C-alpha cells in the first residue's frame, strides 16, 4: 500500500530538522507551567488507574517521554521520523523508542493505560483524524487516558522553513477543541478536562490547547 503523502512529507521534514529541533526545545518544559500541570494531571490519572504503560505518540526527541518518566509512569515513545528516534535514544538511553505511525500503532488491543499525542496530531489533515482517534481508542484499555496538545485555530500552515532549516514542505493544522472533543467522542473517548491558554513568547501566534480524555470502562 502506498503511504499517504502527508506522512512522507512530515517524516522528511522532521528527519531534516531533528538535531536542531532538539537543541531548541530541550528545556522548553522548564518554562511551561501549564504544560507541566496538565502532564501531571494525566500522569496522576494513569498511576491511579494501574492499567499499564503509556506511549508517547509522535514523541520526537523524547522530551515529553522523559518528563513522564520522571513522574513515575512506565512510558515509551513512537515517532514517524527515524532521525528523531535516533536523538531520543541517545538522550534517553534507559527508555524504549521505536519508529512507527499513529495511524497503525504496534500495540495489542487494550494494551495501554495511556496515550500522549503532544503536538503530533497537528500534521494529520483534519478529515483524516477519525481513524487516528479510533486507533488511540483501540490500544487503550477500558479506563485508559489520552492526553492531547495542539494549536488552536482554523487556518492550516504550509511550512517551508523551521528550526533553522529551509527547503521544507509539510503542513501543520490548527484545530478547535470542540471539534477534537467531538472526534474523540465518535471514537468512544470521553472528555475529562481541557485547558486553553493564550500564546506566549516569540514562537507562538495562536492559543494552545491541552485535553485529557478517557476510554470508558466496560458497562
From TrEMBL:
A GO biological-process term: methylation
Signal peptide region: none
Keyword NADP: no
Record's keyword terms, sorted: Methyltransferase, Transferase
Any one GO molecular-function label of the UniProt entry: methyltransferase activity
Transport is among the record's keywords: no
Domain spans labelled Methyltransferase: 54-144
Entries under SUPFAM superfamilies matching the protein: S-adenosyl-L-methionine-dependent methyltransferases (SSF53335)
Pfam families cross-referenced by the UniProt entry: Methyltransf_25
Cited PANTHER family: METHYLTRANSFERASE
Protein name: Class I SAM-dependent DNA methyltransferase
Originating species: Amycolatopsis samaneae
Organism placement in taxonomy: Bacteria, Bacillati, Actinomycetota, Actinomycetes, Pseudonocardiales
